[in-house]
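[09:14] KT: can someone run the structure on this one? pasting the chain below
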Amino acid sequence: MPTGLTPALVTKHLPRRSTLVRKRDGDEIPQPSSPSKRSKVSFDSDVEVRIVEEWEKSPAVIQDSVRRAIQKHVAGDGASYERIKLIYAPTKGDQDMATPTTVKNYTVALLSNVSLLDKKCADLVHAVLDSDWLGRSADYVQLFTQFLANLVSAQGLFLPNVLRMLADNLTSTPPLHSSMNDCLSIPRSQIYARAHKTLQYLLQIIPSACCLFLSILTKIFPHQSDSRRAHLVYVHNLLQITGYAPILQTDILALITERLVKIDLQVQEDLEDLAEDAEEGLVQHESRSLDDVDRILDDSEDSDEESDTDEEADQELLRTREITKNVEKMDYMLDMLFAYHDHQFASPSASIRAGSLDILL
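[09:31] RB: done, structure tokens below
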């Protein structure tokens, strides 16, 4: 071998030994299933399949369904949206009226989605506003009050509708809809108290609404030909408003005085056309008392005691009855105003007494 040469290393590849794995008896090699074949599913015939009723749905599910229904309505699919409207405004003869729990859950859902209730949902909002919320349980009235507050805060375009609805509930014939399911039978005086409490809350959070509210109160003031009860109930509720909205006190008292003057002028005109012997009989009309106001507030009849629709009655007698009613109406309203001012002057607050004096002057 020549010197300086390194012998080449030869690498020998050894054959790879196969690894033997013992197969257990329980092992099975899965066979690939054919993509065209599916395993058969068997159903238990004893399982009852039914549709979940509205009252069984959780509030979270209802909130989500209301949100999707409003979104679909905006997109043009209003089927679910119309079903929500029927919860608050059921059709006559509907046997599947919503339960109080269902109505409450949907009101909570609308409260959570109040930001979506824009002008495209005006018909739904009107259906909710026209529902019998004042005739339900105290906790539902509180919930609905919060809904109204959130609604007018988020969607200011509905503020006139909300104020008008509340003002209508201060009249002698509140717009109660007995078609609603399971409404409580509560006295009218409590209906008025609830409406006042809601109004007080709304006027506190939106003080600028007072001007708009005054125009609504002026618009729906009973006509001078309306019943005595219509005037007494409305004037009583107007005076209640001055207690929690003092900014409206001067305007409300001026409004009542203005309508009193109109009734007085009408009485004077009628007396001029009345025979003297009939006029003497007007002096002795029935005595009155402010204690009757509480009875009048809870009275469901919106007419005066005597009927003047008798075709056989003498026209002179009918006119006499009408004048008598107007005189009594005016006297009751004056008594209510005097009692109001007496209460103001008896106040320990010097500012209240001074303010009352300024109004009278």
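[09:33] KT: thanks! The chain is about 55% helix and 0% strand.
[09:34] RB: yep, looked fine to me
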